[in-house]
Structure formats: structure tokens, C-alpha cells
Amino acid sequence: MNYATVSDFILRVGELDAIELTDRDRTGSVDTTVLNVALSDSSSQIDGYLSARYELPLLDIPQNLVRICCDLTRYRLASMSQVGNTDEIIERYKLSLKELEAIAKGQISLGIANSNTEDDGDNGVMFTNPKNRVFSRDNENRTRTC
Questions:
Q1: In a designed cystine with 21, which of 8, 51, 55, 77 is the match (CB 3.0 to 4.6 A)?
Q2: Is residue 58 in a domain?
Q3: In a domain, 112, yes or no
Q4: Which domain holds residue 79?
């Protein structure tokens, strides 16, 4: 599942930039196949950060993941096109990676309920000592009388 769509990407970077980044055959239009592959690659990269903390796939996609996916995709496409990576593209890419690292560490929450870190109460440990036995260091079992 991709975190961003072709229209999300075009809305964020603009149609002209999307064409420059994807139009390898010089048709003058956005190559949706190239863009979808890049969006999928970026989404997979995001999953690597989220998988330790959240159950995937996410049921609802927060807007910050859509933005991050578009920024990662733009960086990925620029590095494979004649456009090249500008300072802005590189900076947005670095900021996106920092945000993903913070999400993975739990410093930033996605605000979704299906977190793997939530305590559901089913994995607790209970210790019992039904006969009130006391164990000493010399492995002699002594019965405690009360």
C-alpha cells in the first residue's frame, strides 16, 4: 500500500516538476508508471521505520506520512533524472528521515490506535507461591511457618 497517490504527489510538487521528474520518454506528461514505482519504493522505506511500532498496513494514513512519502519520492526521482537534487529537495529528504526516526523511537506519535506498543493486559506475568515456601541460596527448601 502506498502512503501517497499520483495526485497527492502532483498536488505537492506541481505538474511541471512531476513531468520533469518522471517523463523519461519525452511525452510531455507525467509517467504514472514511473511515479507509482517511486511512490511504492518510498512507502516501503516508510514501512521499515513504522513496522517496529505500528501494525501494518495502517488503516488510516496520517497526512504527515503522505507528505513524507512525497518528499522521499521527489528525492528518489530527482536522483534518477536530469533535474538533479536541489538543496531544497535534499533538505526535505533529510527532515523526512529525521521525522521517521522520531516516529520509530516513539518521540512523535502518528495519533492512530493500532500501535503494537499498547498494553492490552494479556501479556502480564504472575508469580505465585501457593505453599508459602522460601528458597534459600544453598538450595535448601525450607517451609516457612506463620
A1: 77
A2: yes
A3: no
A4: 6-105
Question: At a CB cut-off of 8 Å and minimum separation 6, what does 144 contact?
Answer: 132, 133, 134
Asked whether residue 83 is domain-assigned, the answer is yes
Helix ranges, 79-124 (H): 87-105
Cis peptide upstream of residue 57 (ω within 30 degrees of 0): yes
**How far does Cα 142 stand from its chain's mean position?**
54
Q: Could you tell me if residue 120 is inside a domain?
A: no
Please state, in angstroms and rounded to a whole number, the distance separating the CA atoms of residues 100 and 48.
9
Q: What is the pLDDT of residue 136?
A: 59
Domain count of the fold of the chain: 1
- In this model, does residue 97 exceed pLDDT 80? yes
Please check the confidence at residue 144 and state whether its pLDDT lies above 90: no
Selected residue with higher pLDDT from 112 and 103: 103
For 2-126, where are the alpha helices, taking DSSP H only? 6-13, 15-22, 32-50, 63-78, 87-105
